[in-house]
Input
Amino acid sequence: MLRVDPRQRRRLEEIIRNLGDRIEEARVNGWLGEVQGLQTSLEAARNKLSSLDRLARNRMRNRTSVGLGMPIIPGEER
Output
């Protein structure tokens, strides 16, 4: 699966809303095959949004610095 550019979050949210509207329209018109296909697309879009959120959380968590200390080189005095 391709990663979504974080700057495209609003567009992805808009796609999810649009898919929900299209699913409702398909249900009203009795297009059951269309409903199933749209639901698959909706689930994939939601998964991408979740992965985008997870990526953002991981980036925030990884911003803390870690002290690694000074390296010890064999044969040198401390």
